[in-house]
Amino acid sequence: MAKSNEELAQIRTDLAVFRTTLAASRSLMAWLRTGLSLNAFGFTIYMFLKDFTDRVQPNNARNLGLFLIGLGILSILFGCIEYWHVAKESRALYDYPIRKFPLALASCLGLLGLLLFLSVTLRII
Prior knowledge:
The chain has helices at 5-49, 58-94, 101-121. By secondary structure, it is mainly α. The chain has one domain.
């Protein structure tokens, strides 16, 4: 039996909302990749340059590493905020459930970045 125009419109709307939430998840994962890359690069710069104290001031390597790690943490935080707004809006407008797994993963990576920032700040590593 053929579907009515209203049923077809509802199916299209549901699929559009689903695609929007998937796009938000992909955007969050891009923010996470960027943040993780900045964290890793900042830590690598710090560890590599701290051994060259005769050529480079030791605080310069530390400051550059902290700056990059901080940018990585901010990238993860901004990605979480953006994802949360899209998910909240899709739930409010279309009663679509919020997927929490991407936020849980982002939170874990953000906490790891924060621990890395603190360990470089306190010179534990």
